[in-house]
Structure formats: C-alpha cells, structure tokens
C-alpha cells in the first residue's frame, strides 16, 4: 500500500551558505522501497518541477561502501541496528509520518551541499598511519604465517569498518575514536602490522586530534549506530596501545 | 622524554587516560574517607581519636596536597575536553535521539550525559563541605582533641544540611556510576569475560560509596533527634 509521508530535509546550497530544514511531501511511497529509492522518487518530482534536487551521497546501496550516511529522525543511519542508510526500508515508517533528515554533523565533516558532507578527515587519519609499509609481493603460501583463529576473527571484526563516519555523527563529542581504534586494532593484531605498531597509534591519534574531532567519553552511542556493530572494545585497545607506545617513548 | 610525555597526555587519548587515573585516585580517597567516617557509629571517643591520629600525622599535608593536585587535574582536563567537544560540533541536530533506542549496545545513561553538571556540582559541594567541617567551628573535647563528633552532630541536626547532603550524594552517585565504569575503558582495561564484571564492580562501588555518605547524615540527624 502506497504511503504519503512528510520529509523535513536539511537544505544548504554550499559549504559556507546558511542552511535550513525544508518540508517536502513524498507521495506514492511503497513499503518495499529503500530509503534512498524514496529520496530518488522525491528528487524526480523536484526535477520535473524545475527545483533543485536534494543532494545526498550513495554508491553501492548494499551496505559496503559507507558513503550513504544520513541522520534519520535523530539517529545516524536510521532505525535499524547493524544497517547503513541504504539498507533502511520504508516499511519501517508509517503513512503520515514526518521524517527529519539531516547530514552527519561535526566540524571535521563540513557540509558540501544539503546532505553531502566531506569525510576526507577520516582519509587523512588513515594516511597518518593506517597502513603497512611493506612490499606485499605475490600471494604468500598458505600457513607460512600462522595466525590463531580467534586473533584473525578479532582483526576481521575491526577491519569491517567501512569508514562511514556514523560513530562521529552519533557521538555527543563528535569523536572519531571508534573509527580510529578499529583501524589501529586490525593492524595491531596481525603480524604484518607489528613493525609500525607503536608509531601508527601515536600518529593516527595525533591526526585525529588535529582534524578537530572531540574526545571520547565512553558512552558507546557509536557502537549502537555502527552498521558493522564494531565494539568499543577497540577503543579500549587503542588507549592501551597508545599508553604502551607513549611509555616506550614513541 | 618528559616533554614527550606531557605532549602525549595532552592528546585526546592521553587526556582520557589522565582523567581516568585522577578519577580513580579520587575514588580511592572516597573509600578511605567513608571507612573513617563509619567510625562515627562507634561514638565520640573512637571517632575523635581517629581524626586526631589522622590529622596529627605530618604526612597528612603531603596527602592533602596530592589530593588537591589530582582534583584540579581532573577538573581542568575535563573542562578542556568538554569545551573541545562543543567546538567539535558547532552546528547541532534539530532532531536528536539516543542511539540506545535503536541498539542496546550503547552505554549512554542519565549518568553519562550529566557528568559535567554532576562534576561541577561536586566541586561546589566540596567547597561548602570543607568550609563546614575542615574549616568549621573548632570544639575541643575533654581529652584535648578536636571534637569533630560534636560538630557533625550539630551540623546534621539541621534538616536543611541533611537534605543538601542527600541531594549532593544522589548527584555524586550519578557521577560515580558512569565515572567508575568509564575509567576502566579509558585505561584500556577490557576483556570479553572480565569487562561485564568490571562494569558491575564499578557500579557496586558507586552504590556503596554514595549510599554510605547518603546514610551517614541521616543517621546523625536521627541520633541528634533521639538525644
Ligand atoms: S551506499 Fe554504500 S553503504 Fe550505503
């Protein structure tokens, strides 16, 4: 059954322009539509009327690229746990609902247009140390580098981070500690990450602070919105790694 | 190395570690303070002798200076991070809901969202508390010691004081509830099996500490009424 909904969307013409919430009526919304499909339909309507369509980011539309973050009714990535915005479906809403749609907010994530933000601050944190400086060469022989199963599982859990920035968006301090700690953890657990282990954590934390993110206060709202359900245990590990690296004089 | 360490401790992670360490230091003080104050239940002799022994030890000045430094570090570091967090999100959300409503994985609570308020209140409380007791009226007991027992009895015979202390302890309870569990996380103490127990232990300690200091004024009030 098609529904009619009211959307209250953040519209902002450019980075330094003032923005405001604008109301739109979304007609013929089918419960099986994805949230982004619904926005596509609204945009088609706007274009037909000669209006400026609502700018929002998306790419894979299957929860793996991390480009589609929106704050839906006050919660990053909307109402479904362990899901990205593109995985939210309209059956989660009822006819007549008003849906408030805002961009991820942080000083380090400037709004480019409407709901599109610049998340390159996260890329710069990676560039500061979230890599392994070895020539990887060809694929190694199986089992020539034994890694215990539980360690590889943990590393994979952390490596699932898609860098969407929802952790920052939902944190009252706009902290990027969950993102940074996931990257620190997945490399700290694996043998390839060992040579740069201490330097990595110090540099990434430094870059994170430089970008203007806030400081974590251990509330765990980030974990609740993370589409990959990455645990704040990663933050504890990052703090531990940082403490060790600092005491070792890094 | 020292300048490097100072630099590291001023980063966001270093600051959190410092806030956790100083917070735990203050909690250890509260444990000893409560243990000492429980001696009030054993009457004037025991209580006054205890406080006299404690205060006549010259090391108490060193301990007090240490506590003051720890306290100031805790307050200053938290304020710096608090204002930093305000700057980290200059434009807020129009609609804002706790992510806890979507997943129980969040640890957000009334306690965690009011840390700055309960913390600043504790600062205010501390000033009045020291003014009332440490720097309050000096009564001398028959044996020539400071009669803190009498002072406590007198202060808490006023219902206003009792009510103020009870409200203060409720707020300090909230601060401890999040603080004691949060400190472990900040210090990187985390383990799949142990974390739930550490969280529980922190909460039990919060109940015991705040509960103890909540009941003592009430007990004193009732005692004053009865006599
Ligand atoms: S569009 Fe790729 S995760 Fe949503």
What is the level-2 CATH architecture name of chain B? Up-down Bundle
CATH class of the largest domain in chain A, anyone? Mainly Alpha
CATH topology of chain B: 3 helical TM bundles of succinate and fumarate reductases
Gyration radius of chain A (Cα, Å) is: 20 Å
Structural class of chain A: alpha+beta
Physical arrangement of strands within the biggest beta sheet of chain A: 2-1-5-3-4
What does it look like?
- The complex is a heterodimer of chains A (250) and B (227).
- In chain A, a hairpin with a 2-residue loop joins strand 3 and strand 4.
- In chain A, 34% of the residues lie in helices and 14% in strands.
- Chain A has 250 residues and is an alpha+beta fold.
- Chain A is built from 8 helices and 7 strands, in the order E-E-H-E-E-E-E-E-H-H-H-H-H-H-H.
- The relative contact order of chain A is 0.14.
- Chain A is elongated, with a radius of gyration of 20 Å.
- Chain B has 227 residues and is mostly helical.
- Chain B has a single domain, classed as Fumarate reductase/succinate dehydrogenase, transmembrane subunit (3 helical TM bundles of succinate and fumarate reductases, Up-down Bundle), CATH 1.20.1300.
- In chain B, helix 6 crosses helix 8.
- The structure holds FE2/S2 (inorganic) cluster (FES).
- The site of FE2/S2 (inorganic) cluster (FES) has 13 residues of chain A, from loops.
